[in-house]
């Protein structure tokens, strides 16, 4: 900080006031999140222990909701959701990594930016639009089947295109893969080229360089992308409803259907489990990876 | 590799086409009409959903980037940068339906009735991580030495920020504004949990789809969302092109 001439008591007090004012101003986002996100999450956990009483629910300490989870169908839904989410995230990661690697290392920055923008748009578009269109495309009388049949590749419409695991996977991947490209792009782009050049100079094959240098150094981005994908897939309620058809239950639409029947403690319990899982993963991300690599230059400036 | 990217992009954009096409379809195949878009104006529920969506998007487009900017500055200046960053990123780790549910619990407990305000709050939370990251990224190209120079020339902190830093990170701020607005326009699940009787365009589409099913008018509405989103993106690209030319 620049040196200042000695000020009178009044201006010193004014300085301190201004400094405090600034601190409060800058804390506003944190306060906002604390009130409107952290507190509600605590409420959710609390309500998951409440009882259902007819159409309402009242304070209690009961494990009824959690018990109803353990015995039976809902646990299976949770397991199935995790499996599907992991599959979708893994596939998306592979594809997103390939694209991000290509854009970060083999393409000029200006072009890469345009391509990245192109990838964000479908992500932003309301998912109902996207998923409904898939039903049009993948249905028995849909575009894909008509094309396949008229090209003579198949004799009868393929049933498994829609209302199946395939359709749900497709919906999930198309939803989250585009946005996963970003953290990967940032991570890969941040790797100092000199490391890669040095590795090549020392005689390593491109694949070895990738395996020992690029991949490990891009892990923070991989984890961030994977986490984002996982959370998104687990939270999805539209995809299972629209593309999975009646009776295809994932955690997302289980929560919404329990909300529909006003069983809020159950919805809260389901939410709490998923949220707990996600927060544990987030904590793991924080502890394992040096946030400095993520925050980059900004932290360097801190006096 | 470009082939893979082209395929991926095609794969992602194709689903947008059927809705647009269906919204223009006339009574007989091969006939095109804008009639369904016209119908939208005649439906009061749709019009009020428009109003709500527009107002909420405006407010979120201001509030989220503002908080994101404060958060980015806080990360740079306060003593707990990682805590602040993690807090800003938390909405990304909470599934949408759970966030909506949790917020609904809070509002109910505090006795706050559902209104456009509750919708704005929930959507701001959702847009906050994106706005913060965009502005943070813009700040990485900004060298604080400029601020130091300003301080030495006698400028106060606010003056230095306003005259020096703000213009240089302006592209980040417009990016955050555009992104927040787009996210707001398309947000469905969190909004539907706290909206009460107030519909936004996406929640209107969702509830109509679930209760009644699809119709050309609904397709027209979906088409409008697609078009609006693309328009905002194009506007942002044009603005940033102009700015970098100067």
SSE diagram, text form:
The complex is a heterodimer of chains A (303) and B (246).
Chain A lengths: L8 H39 L3 E3 L2 E3 L5 H7 L2 H33 L3 H16 L2 H12 L4 H8 L14 H25 L3 H9 L4 H12 L1 H17 L2 H7 L6 H10 L3 H25 L2 H5 L1 H4 L3
Chain B lengths: L1 H12 L2 H9 L10 H8 L1 H34 L3 H13 L2 H15 L5 H24 L5 H8 L4 H12 L1 H17 L2 H6 L6 H11 L4 H30 L1
> Biggest sheet of chain B, open or closed, and with what strands and sense?
none
How many structural domains are formed by the residues of chain A? Answer: 1
**Radius of gyration of chain B in whole Å, from Cα?**
21 Å
Q: Helix count of chain B, per DSSP? A: 13
Shape of chain B: globular
Quick structural overview:
The complex is a heterodimer of chains A (303) and B (246). Chain A has 303 residues and is mainly alpha-helical.
What attributes does this structure have?
heterodimer, A: 303 residues, mainly alpha, MetI-like fold, two-stranded antiparallel ribbon, B: 246 residues, 13 helices, 0% strand
Please characterize this protein's 3D structure.
The complex is a heterodimer of chains A (303) and B (246). Chain A is mainly α and 303 residues long. In chain A, helix 7 crosses helix 11, helix 8 packs antiparallel against helix 9 and helix 10 runs antiparallel to helix 13. Chain A starts with 8 loop residues before the first helix and ends with a helix. Chain B has one domain: MetI-like (MetI-like fold, Orthogonal Bundle), CATH 1.10.3720. By secondary structure, chain B is an all-alpha fold. Chain B is globular, with a radius of gyration of 21 Å. In chain B, helix 7 runs antiparallel to helix 10. At the A-B interface, helix 1, helix 3, helix 4, helix 5 and helix 7 of A face helix 1, helix 2, helix 4, helix 5 and helix 6 of B.
